Amino acid sequence: MRHHTGKRFLYFRDLRPARPRVALLITFLSLLPVLSVTAQENQAPREATGYNVAALQAQTSSAFLAWLEQQITEQHLPGAAAALVSREQTLDLRTWGVRNADNPQPLTEESLFRIASVSKTFAGTVASLMVSNHLQSWETPVSEVLPQLQIGTGSASRAITLRNIVSHTTGLMPHAYSNMLDDGVLYEKIVSKFNQIPTVCPPGRCYGYQNVVFSLIADVVEVSTHEPYEQYLDEQLFKPLGMDHASTGLDNFVGSADATAPHLRVRGGWHTTSLNPAYYSVAPAAGINASVLDMAIWARANLGGFPEVLSESFLSQQHTPVVETPRGNYFNRWPGLEKAWYALGWRVFDYRGLRVIHHGGGVRGFRSEVALVPDRNIGVVVLFNEETTLANDVVPAFLDSLLQ
Questions:
Q1: Structural domain of residue 26, as residue ranges?
Q2: Residue 350 lies in a domain
Q3: Where does 68-127 show beta strands of DSSP type E?
Q4: What's the pLDDT tens digit per position in 257-302?
């Protein structure tokens, strides 16, 4: 029997407390598009100011969450959580279903999800904080920071910088060794193969999404701060923002009484599945656990809600496009999407005239989506403890409700 619950929370207060074989890679090389970095159209289009912001937020929240609840119910999803936020407050927060279909306890606002690649938004911010704190430079080649490491098959790859890693402009073969992660191989076993990753173009010239290479951010953090990446992340972001349930690593997830179980659809029904520990070994790329409460705070922070932690000028840097991204990913197929880029740990796109800051994620049994529209002072977080294609639809549905 499927158990389904729904909760609604209205918050009008601050929520804070006082790393494939080279031959296989080369085979795919000719199939992947390479796009030039664009320095144009980096400014977000400004919206007209003649609308009632509070009324718009309430209308969007009501319409979107009604649609989402209907989809969750019709598709019999095990569990989900969503939050609508502005920079000042959490506008609406709801949970549905159960943490584990085999042991049905209601999913709550404190239930933990793996947020997968949305972790990159935190890693990008951590990298920028290092630069802001003069612990590292955007333009210093990583080969100078990590001299023991050789990256790429071409000599041009010796010039890869921290900025290239954070913005996926390393010039390396896209998705290098992600298949090894899928097979359960840990980052530490993959690093020695970095010198076999084909160099596609000079650093900074083309876009190539990475998981394993992206996680060099943790190595740079450790060398630069003399702290583990996880500790620096906790000290610089989780604690200052009051993200009380957020953590990194497998142990922190499985050891939590609030952890949700991953689910896959098998023969028409949802069943629990195993966790893939390898993606926890690439913490910057996919290693964060968080509740919807935590992610509501993160969304608010990236809208400018906590300027003492992330200032307006800092966020402007984070959200400024660096490289245009190719069509083909699920988000590039949304009918209203006009153009898309990658920034510093965030995706940026224009959707029917709106400038949107976005990232999605997926690991075995989990999906997550975050979208922010700073000009309308609103954002959305949706977390699923199942691999559902509904995750592909939540952002355009949210944006369409905003534009109605």
A1: 7-403
A2: yes
A3: 79-85, 90-97, 113-114
A4: 999 999 999 988 999 999 999 999 999 999 999 999 999 999 999 9
| DSSP-derived secondary structure letter, 277 | G
Phi, psi of 51 (to 5 degrees): -130, 160
**Rounded to an integer, what distance in angstroms lies between the CA atom of residue 290 and that of residue 395?**
19
Q: What is the CATH number of the domain that holds 322?
A: 3.40.710.10
| Token output for 123 | 């890693």
Q: How many CB atoms lie within 10 A of CB 330?
A: 13
Contact 399, 310 (CB under 8 A): no
Per-residue pLDDT for 1 more than 50?
no
Cβ proximity of 35 and 323 under 8 Å:
yes
Q: What is the C-alpha to C-alpha distance for residues 159 and 172, in angstroms, rounded to an integer? A: 12
Those residues whose C-beta lies under 8 Å from the C-beta of residue 208, and which sit 6 or more positions away, are 32, 34, 168, 169, 170, 171, 172, 173, 174, 175, 200
Number of domains present in the structure of the chain: 1
The answer as to whether 299 is a domain residue is yes
Residue 373 has pLDDT above 60, yes or no: yes
Q: How far apart (Å, rounded) are the C-alpha atoms in residues 318 and 344?
A: 5
DSSP 231-272: HHHIIIIIHHHT-TT-EESHHHHHT-TTBPPPEEEETTEEEE
Return d(Cα 240, Cα 273) in angstroms, integer.
34
Kindly list the distances between the CA atom of residue 42 and the CA atoms of 317, 341, 355, in Å, as whole numbers in the listed order: 11, 9, 10
Residue at 1 is within a domain: no
Asked, for residue 2, whether it belongs to a domain, the answer is no
> Model confidence over 301-314: pLDDT tens digits?
999 999 999 999 99
Q: What is the pLDDT of residue 55?
A: 80
Asked if residues 54 and 230 have their Cβ atoms less than 8 Å apart, the reply is no
